[in-house]
Amino acid sequence: MRAKVYVTLKPGVLDPAGKAIERALHALGFEEAHDVRLGKYIELHVDGDATEAAGRLDDMCRKLLANGVIEDYRFEVGE
Amino acid sequence: MRWGVVTFPGSLDDADALHALEALGEPAVALWHKDRSLQGVDCVVLPGGFSYGDYLRAGALARFSPVMESVVGFAAAGGLVLGICNGFQVLCESGLLPGALIRNRSLSFICTTVHCRVEETDTPFTGAYGHAEVLALPIKHGEGCYVADPATLQALEDDRQVLLRYVDAAGRATEAANPNGSLRNIAGITNATRNVFGLMPHPEHACEALCGGVDGAGFFRSVRATLTDGLPTRTASVPPGL
Amino acid sequence: MTTTLPPVTAAQATEHGLTPDEFRRFCDAIGRVPNLVELGICSVMWSEHCSYKSSRAVLRGLPTTGPRVLQGPGENAGAIAIGDGLAVVFKIESHNHPSYIEPYQGAATGVGGILRDVFTMGARPIANLNSLRFGSLDHPRTRYLVGGVVSGIGGYGNCVGVPTVGGEIYFDKAYNENILVNAFTLGLVRADRIFRAKAAGVGNPVIYVGSKTGRDGIHGASLLASAEFDETSDQKRPTVQVGDPFTEKLLIEACLELMEKDFVIAIQDMGAAGLTSSSVEMAASGGLGISIDLDQVPKRETNLTPYEILLSESQERMLIIARAGAEQAVMDIFRKWDLDAEVIGTLTDDGLIRVRAGGQEVVQLPLDPLAHGAPVYERPYAPPAGQDELQRLDLAQIPLPGDYGQTLLRLLATPNIASKRWVFRQYDSLVGSNTVVGPGSDAAVMRVKGTTKAIALSVDCNSRYCLLDPYVGAMTAVVESARNVVCSGGEPLGVTNCLNFGNPEKPEIMWQFREAVRGLSDACNALGVPIVSGNVSFYNETDGRSIPPTPTVAMVGLLADVSQHTTQWFKGEGDVIVLLGRTREELGGSEYLAAVRDVVRGTPPWIDLSVEMQVQHVCTQAIREGLVRSAHDCAEGGLAVAVAECCIAGPGEPLGAEIEIEADIRPDAWLFGESQSRIVLSLRKKYVNRLRDLARDADVSCTVLGEVRGRRLRIGGLVDVSAADLRSAWADALAQQMEG
Predict the structure, then answer these.
(1) Annotated catalytic residue: which of B85, B92, B116, B145?
(2) Which portions of chain B are predicted below pLDDT 70?
(3) What three-state secondary structure class fits C276?
(4) CB–CB of C249 and B138 under 8 A?
(5) C100: burial class by Cβ within 10 Å (0-12, 13-18, 19+)?
(6) pLDDT at position C2, please?
(7) Which C residues in the span 543-602 are in contact with B, Cβ-Cβ below 8 Å?
(8) Which chain A residue has the Cα nearest residue B182?
(9) Which of B226, C159, C405, C469 has its CA 20 to 30 A from that of C668?
(10) Rounded Cα–Cα distance for residues C185 and C554 (Å)
(11) Which residues of A touch B92 (CB under 8 A)?
């Protein structure tokens, strides 16, 4: 089963990379861009059915893929 | 007493920590990440480097290593643990210290000498320094920006767990003196029970006059004094609840 | 028919970069027409990058021997004894084309490759340097390239535990479309434990270790490094390799652990041309044969063809010839470090490389023609058409500056002279606990633990001089890097060079190359320093425009007593400032003319090698006797810039100086001319007479310039600028241009 995990910085945590991207976008004339936050996107295959996989993925995120102190996560299981 | 320096596969400053301890006349052994045994050491050093490549997050994989299982137990039993740079990141990821270390504000790796002020001297790691003493210490990291939520920061301040802050040469914690954007210029913190200490500067690279100066030696001397002569007494008022 | 695959056509040979003559020569040598896999092998082994077919004949004249030389050119790196049973192993290598196409990965894998060349020989790498050339900072792509290359060098170097302790960076519009990234590594080894790439022992196993093989970098060496750039170069992007520094770190530790044992007969990095060149070169240099089974090669992707596996340039891989019976012990060490290790073949006695895949033999070639059969070209040479005109400089046409202080500030802020701190602060220069003097002084100084010794390291080349006169320019690169080592307290030991040139098939490029090699040779002979390793990078051209000749020289020196290490900046007020060497009216090729007058012409400053030797000798003697508080080579920007750097380059508050001027030449030449063989010293007043004696004995000009004093730099009635202004102009310029 294919899964997609999105790890993002919690609101309020300083994101210097996001700020740099926002500055660059503005410099290129995309002044409408705001609140840029840079995150991580992880693709993986998991064995088992969808419900089981979702439970395991949640475990994976909490234990390793995201750091709960600074990051939030969400994931999609499917296909 | 005896020191143990952990080697993760991507540790880089492990040999340097062993070398500094040797230069200070301290007996030390290397601890391998796949081993659970801490070989009966009295203080564990988690050195700088990139523990397991740190491609996901600095220190994220190290917490699951056999040696870290033992270090967590060792710390819970009151053992002294000193985490330097990547070691500090591992301690935060492992939950032995609060907060996290994220990418430097500048987005680039920084290797330079900074000034740090010793905030508290009644700990096993800082007893050899004078109060508010300003040290010249090298830093070299890409992810050294200390962050924590406001409540955690306040708790750290209230409990005087911030042991080291980035300052200018005159000892002022200014924005310009902050090399990586760390909140409240935090360079090093201890845990509530004051037996685990993590810092981004590299004291092991400041133990010899020929290479980097000697301002870092006090951290190791403090531990030696603590384990030989007992804990320094807490001088200031102890916050309620401790 | 010895293999099961069909023979190739002449058109396929041309596509692989072989000329019709070369293809015929190869067919003759093997007595038939090769199949496609065999053609691939031939094309990389006979590429310029691997065979040195255009340079080999010229390079024969270089001095490569000496009493301390343990290994000269021809191995993975050179080795020189430093006493105490120890040796240094070092080499510099280019990664120019990959870095232009993908700056981060290109530079990163350049660092990885040169590290492997050094630890392959059993040496633990203790210092990295690099020499970088970029286009003008005004060019739209330059900042992107600088940022990418610098973070690539840092991103790789900082993760493997080897400090980056120095280097040089120049900006010149001549490199706008062809940057140079030359990476240097020095390692330390027990002199009796140097490993080489010479196979021995029929039946011994061939072991593959490190990362798995993928499709990256196929034909990187043969095509990318052996052909000019054009508008299709971006399409070559898939051939750029991706580096994994964590795996490199594991490989360093595993290999060095393995080499403490007695299991290894020969070892070589799978670098350019990967499995092909490492297996061919090791077996051929041992006069043996080799048999390989590609089914045993660890792979990262499915459906890799034999052709792809043999030519892949996947990074962080090594090939080892081990002692028979030690297979398991070798593999255990790599497994300890979580690395792949597989026996993929054996040594044979038939002089052939035989490769099997899927149970079929796909390659059966004699090794000798592959390793030694490439043609050696004596390419035609002639000076470029405009060379005489380029050397014409009429100083009468050059007006004197109106304000010498402003001119000095302007020079200090040019990217070629300005502080490179913005760059080197992104590199870990401390790991290893050996760095006594890091980036920013004349040479880096690394102590050798367990001894009183230290190693001094400098890398240098002024390509403007080389453009105007490649012979003098190459000599200057040698003597100036030696002077940097001497100013740091070291005695020059040996050289590695990276010769970056245009297309050698053009007579004017070949002329530049020959002249530069002649200059290297003469200078190294005069100084008595051998060249023990190096690399030639041709085809540094884009759309037919060549880079200036850039023969980069890295000099390695020895300090018998590390306590005598010396830095370039002034140490305290009251010290006397002395100039060793003479200042002539020489402005040709100067940074001053280029930056202020936009003039790049004339002849570069002349070098009298015997004077140079004597100046270096006096400086060395003075340092040995403990007279010297600071020593700084006079280079780009001339005397005024050198003195200014002495005032401002130190870690503390900037110092001032009072300088007398007694010039019978143009003031701008006295201040900013770049006459060679000059060193600025500072010393306590009581030692000045002793220094004069040393200089007189050696027939070296020794002039008291003035004194370290106050917080302003005053030079005669010409310059009067605060040291703080000098520092901010110099310290902030590069950061402002990169981030502004």
Answers:
(1) B85
(2) 231-242
(3) helix
(4) no
(5) buried
(6) 55
(7) 562-563
(8) A14
(9) C469
(10) 10
(11) 69
Q: How far is CA A4 from the centre of its chain?
A: 9
Mean pLDDT confidence for C690-717: 97
Residues A38 and A36: their CA atoms lie apart, in Å, by 7
Question: Is B184 in the A-facing interface, judged by CB distances under 8 Å?
Answer: no
Integer angstrom CA distances of residue A70 from A7, A13, A66 = 10, 7, 8
Subunits with 3+ C-beta pairs closer than 8 A to C: B
Residue of B63, B68, B102 to mutate, interface with A, max A Cβ within 10 Å = B102
Q: Provide the shortest C-alpha distance from residue B69 to chain A (in Å).
A: 14
Contacts of C419 (CB under 8 A, 6+ apart): C440, C649, C730, C731, C733, C734
Q: Are C474 and C520 in contact (CB under 8 A)?
A: yes
* Residue C242 pLDDT level (bands cut at 50, 70, 90): confident
Of A12, A14, A65, the CB nearest to B102: A14
Selecting among B92, B202, B205, B207, the annotated active-site residue is B202
Among B91, B105, B97, B18, which residue's Cα sits nearest to residue B59? Answer: B91
DSSP assigned state of A62: I
Longest dimension (CA), chain B: 46
Phi, psi of A10 (to 5 degrees): -60, 150
Tell whether C704 lies on the interface with B, counting CB pairs under 8 A. Answer: no
Strand partners, C712: C722
User: Helix, strand or coil for residue B28?
Assistant: strand
- To which residue do tokens 């082994």 refer? C45
The residue type found at B142 is G
- DSSP-based three-state secondary structure for B178: coil
Cα angle: C148, vertex C152, C158; to 5 degrees = 145
Angle between helices C245-259 and C103-119 (to 10 degrees): 0
**Residue C627 CB-half CA count within 13 A:** 25
Rounded CA gap, C250 and B19, in Å?
Answer: 21
Instruction: State whether B145 and A13 contact (CB < 8 Å).
Output: no
What was the pLDDT predicted at C235? Answer: 47
**Nearest CA-CA partner of B63 in B34, B97, B91, B103:** B91
In sequence order, what DSSP letters do the residues of C292-345 get, joined into one string? EEGGGS-BSSSS--HHHHHH---SSEEEEEE-TT-HHHHHHHHHHTT-EEEEEE
The two tokens of residue C188 are 């330390």
Residue environment code for C39-60, b if the CB has 16+ CB neighbours within 10 A, otherwise e? bbbbbbbbbbbbbbbbbeebbe
Closest C-chain CA to B104: C426
Has residue C230 got a pLDDT over 60? no
Residue type, C702: C
C248, two tokens: 């490199």
Size of chain A, expressed as the number of residues it contains: 79
Q: Which helix (H) or strand (E) holds C705?
A: strand C702-708
Query: Touching check for C125 and chain B: CB below 8 Å?
Result: no
CA distance B112 to B134: 16
pLDDT tens-digit series, residues A23-67: 888 888 999 998 898 999 999 999 888 888 999 999 999 989 999
pLDDT value at C83 more than 50: yes
The length of chain C in residues reads 740
Judged by CB atoms closer than 8 Å, whether chains meet at A64 and B56 is answered as yes
Query: B140 vs C158: CB contact, 8 Å cut-off?
Result: yes
- Residue written as token pair 């290598």: C93
* Element (DSSP H or E) covering residue B228: helix B217-229
Q: CB distance from B102 to chain A under 8 Å? A: yes
Mean per-residue pLDDT, C16-33: 96
Report how many Cβ contacts below 8 Å link chain A to chain B. Answer: 38
Task: Please report all neighbours of B, defined by 3+ CB atom pairs within 8 A.
Answer: A, C
Q: Give the count of alpha carbons within 13 A of B86, CB side only.
A: 31
Chain B residue with minimum CA distance to A38: B103
